From TrEMBL:
GO terms for biological process: cell wall organization; peptidoglycan biosynthetic process; regulation of cell shape. The chain crosses the membrane at residues 9-28. One of its GO terms (cellular component) is plasma membrane. This is Penicillin-binding protein 2. It is a single-pass membrane protein.
Length: 700
């Protein structure tokens, strides 16, 4: 045995075995015995996961010009580091000093409950159960408090019981500290929003004094010239309870922003990005350390078919001409009360909507302004005022329904030709009236001059807008066939445009009269329907599509405003392709109606003669409409105009409606302004999207 221990190799071997045994024991102890304890300790350092907010996609016009983009602001965020009230209050006092010196403001949610000078905030002022509200907002019982408790008593409770603020602070300083402390205990512990670079620099430089304080970048919406298309673009806003319940499965949270109207709403699924997450551990000095991170995925960009410059022209022309109509005083029929309208421009070959103007509009920026922005709050209040005629969220272009008046006559002409009731050159003597069911239906010429237009055919009847001609042939066609052809041209039914809020409209028919009038349908009803009166009411987008269908020879396009959706990496998510139905109309019949519409704008006695003389080499085809509303004793009639150009090879169709616009010819200058800009800009081929898209990169 003695010789064995003298063997140095045996000694070394035994030593190694003993050392290995100790190591194995320690590892077993750490992993099996103390493992759960060590795991709990390591996890206790991980205080929270913070959300990295994803940028919302941009909204761009057809050439890549930004309309809705993102700007980045910065917020002060408080993470729980386990500090006691005394140290937290001291830190809040320092942060308040930093904010004040740099011109920044703390979150003031606390003021909704308690204001300074001491008083009840909006959430408590007229509250019938203040104790319950206070308990909900803080988790404290507020025992002994009732409706008679004063703001001073509640202030003292907050100070002494909830936030334990030392008496060394003044009343105002203590209130400000509690304001930040309250922000820090909320679900989204943001102490201050939109802070300056000076505040960021100082907080980061003095980070040792501010354990748990982090600076978070926050993307926010910014609108550029969107006031010209307020109803079209729409706006975003904080998600409400109903929206949250509807979208909870899609990962929405109570702190999210969501599209509320317009394109912001209809393309929410594309525009919304995917938030990232950062798992943060607080070290012994209270400094956050990123443990893991899941990156954000920005939302996709939505490219519209709209040309924002053309949209501006349409809006400016509506404003200018509505003002002119109010001021001109050359007719007893003008009550000088024109106040609103709409203009729609469409590519007749693709269904792309180039302009969708609804006047008056509004600026979507008011919905993302600071809560204390008095001008924005006043503007939002005005939108809900029925007496307000200067701003509106109502999208007249797709939701407003209007009696068509004489712009309905080309459709009656097509129906009469297709049903074999006349030919393009069959003559009719317009004596100024027709009589049906003992009712004498007079033309404007007969009322004024006791005479009619004399001999007309289909083309000259459209050109000069002969009511008796269309009374006569409307009855030959019959109301059922009129309804059939109106539907074929997309009237009285939704176009399917990619916006919410589109109205269906009304087609004057036997069925509709039964709903609103106990008397049977008559020949006089058919005659009134044939000149675009009676019950018929359609939307401006339907009028534009109807004009486009005549222009392109019988293709009823599906209008759309979404051109493409582009992912953040530049790949195309979706691109809208033209959709249409072929209407069974003989080419020669469509050509005859087109000739009548060309004569409206170009013949010396056309109802829109000389309105388009500024368009030197462009031939316009159009039709005026003056629609009576039954309120002519106190209000002017509505005015309408449809057109397309160039007549020889159509590219663009336009529809204009002015409420109380007096005469259809008064609205033709609006269409002229739209056409002039369009052709001066070389139509839809004037710019390159890929070049303009570079602008957008500056916003990201």
């Amino acid at each position: 045995m003695k010789n064995f221990f003298k063997d140095r190799y045996n000694i070394v071997g035994i030593a190694i075995i003993l050392m290995f045994s100790v190591i194995v024991y320690q590892l077993a102890n750490m992993q099996l015995v103390q493992g759960e304890n060590y795991y709990a300790q390591s996890q206790s350092k991980i205080m929270s996961s913070t959300t990295i907010l994803a940028e919302r996609g941009n909204i761009l016009d057809r050439y890549g010009v930004p309309v809705a983009v993102n700007s980045t602001s910065y917020s002060v965020l408080l993470m729980d580091t386990g500090l006691g009230s005394k140290m937290l209050n001291e830190m809040m006092y320092k942060i308040l000093d930093v904010l004040e010196r740099n011109g920044d403001s703390p979150d003031d949610t606390f003021s909704k409950y308690l204001t300074y000078p001491l008083g009840f905030g909006s959430m408590l002022k007229n509250n019938e159960n203040r104790q319950k509200t206070l308990k909900t907002m803080t988790g404290y019982d507020f025992k002994g408090f009732d409706q008679d408790s004063t703001p001073e008593e509640i202030y003292e409770y907050f100070k002494d019981k909830v936030f334990k603020v030392d008496d060394k602070y003044s009343e105002k300083d203590a209130y400000d500290i509690m304001t930040l402390r309250y922000a820090g205990i909320s679900m989204n512990p943001v102490l201050a929003d939109s802070i300056s670079t000076n505040t960021i620099a100082e907080l980061e430089e003095r980070s040792d004094e501010f354990p748990g304080i982090t600076i978070q970048s926050v993307p926010s919406r910014k609108y550029i010239d969107a006031k010209y298309a307020g109803q079209l673009i729409g706006h975003v806003g904080p998600i409400d309870g109903d929206e949250l319940a509807k979208h909870r499965d899609a990962g929405y949270k109570m702190t999210d922003v969501i599209g509320k109207s317009g394109v912001e709403l209809t393309t929410e699924g594309y525009l919304r990005g995917t938030n990232g997450y950062r798992r943060v551990e607080i070290d012994d000095n209270g400094k956050p350390r990123t443990v893991s991170e899941e990156g954000v995925k920005p939302g996709s960009d939505v490219v519209l078919t709209i040309d924002m410059e053309l949209q501006k022209v349409a809006m400016d022309s509506l404003a200018k001409n509505i003002k002119y109509i109010r001021e001109v005083n050359n007719s007893k029929k003008n009550h000088r009360d024109a106040f609103a309208g709409a203009a729609v421009a469409m590519d007749v070959n693709t269904g792309e909507v180039l302009a969708l103007a609804s006047y008056p509009s509004y600026d979507p920026s008011i919905f993302i302004a600071d809560p204390d922005d008095k001008a924005a709050n006043k503007a939002k209040a005005a939108l809900g005022d029925p007496k307000n005629t200067t701003t509106s969220e109502y999208n007249r272009a797709i939701a407003g329904i209007y009696t068509p008046g004489s712009i309905f006559k080309p459709l009656i002409g097509i129906a009469a030709l297709e049903e074999g009731k006349t030919t393009p050159y069959e003559t009719y003597f317009d004596k100024g009236y027709e009589t049906y069911d003992g009712m004498m239906l007079k033309s404007i010429e007969y009322i004024q001059y006791r005479a009619g237009l004399g001999t007309v055919n289909l083309i000259t009847a459209i050109q000069r807008s002969s009511n008796p001609y269309f009374y006569h042939y409307g009855n030959k066609v019959g109301i059922d066939n009129i309804v059939k052809w109106a539907k074929r041209f997309g009237l009285g039914k939704k176009t399917g445009i990619d916006l919410l809020g589109e109205s269906k409209g009304i087609i004057s028919s036997r069925e509709y009269k039964k709903k609103v009038n106990p008397y049977p349908w008559t020949a006089a009803d058919t005659a009134q329907t044939a000149i675009g009166q009676m019950y018929s009411s359609f939307t401006p987008i339907q009028f534009a599509n109807y004009a486009a269908t005549i222009a392109n020879g019988g293709k009823l396009m599906k209008p759309h405003i979404i051109k493409r959706v582009v992912k953040y990496d530049g790949s195309i998510v979706t691109e809208t392709k033209p959709e249409y139905e072929i209407i069974p109309v003989k080419k020669e019949n469509m050509k005859a109606v087109q000739q009548g519409m060309i004569a409206v704008a170009n013949a010396t006695d056309g109802t829109a003669a000389d309105k388009f003389k500024d368009l030197k080499d462009i031939t316009v085809a159009g039709k005026t409409g003056t629609a009576e509303t039954g309120q002519e004793a106190n209000h002017s009639s509505n005015a309408l105009f449809i057109c397309y150009a160039p007549a020889e090879k159509p590219q663009i169709a336009v529809a204009v409606v002015v409420e109380r616009g007096v005469f259809g010819s008064y609205t033709a200058p609006i269409a002229k302004d739209i056409l002039k800009y369009y052709f001066d800009s070389n139509g839809t081929g004037n710019k390159d999207f890929t070049v303009k898209a570079d602008i957008v990169q500056l916003t990201k």
